[in-house]
Amino acid sequence: MTTFLSVFVSVFAIEFVFFLFAYIVLGGKPSEVQEHLEMLSEPMRWFSQQFLITPEKSFVDACGVMLGNSFLVAIPVFLSVKVVEVVFRRNRVMQIGIGGSVDDSDD
Q1: What is the DSSP code string of 11-47?
Q2: Residue 92: what are its φ and ψ, rounded to 5°?
Q3: Are 53 and 38 in contact (CB under 8 A)?
C-alpha cells in the first residue's frame, strides 16, 4: 500500500509542482499554461468534461482534478509494480537450509 501512496503523491507533485512551476518560471505564455492544465486534466476528462481545468476553475478545483488524475495514473503503475514483484519472487533462487553437522573425519 505504501508503494501506491508514494506513486500517487509523486505523480501529483511532479505534475503540479514541478511542471506547472517550470512553465511559469520559464515565462510560458498563458495559452501554453492553459494547454498544460488541459493536458493534466486529460485522464479524468475522458469520463466527464466537468473535469477539464479552465481559468474559471478555482485552485482547489484544479488540485482536486489533478489529485484524481494522479489516482487514476497510480492504479496501473501500482498494478504493474506488483506484477513485476510477483514475477521476480517466483524466479528467486531458493536456498535450502540443511541441518546437522558435517563429519569431515575419514575412518
Answers
A1: HHIIIIIIIIHHHHHTT--HHHHHHHHHHHTHHHHTT
A2: -70, 140
A3: yes
The pLDDT score that the predictor gives to residue 4 is 67
d(CA 10, CA 71): 11
Around Cβ 20, how many Cβ atoms within 10 Å?
Answer: 17
Tell me, what's the pLDDT at 13?
73
* CB-based contact 52:41 (threshold 8 Å): yes
Which pTM was predicted? 0.56
CA gap 81, 75 in Å, rounded: 10
Cell of 77: 503503475
CA separation for the pair 85, 45 (Å, rounded): 31
* 7 CB-near residues (< 8 Å, 6+ apart): 73, 74, 77, 78, 81
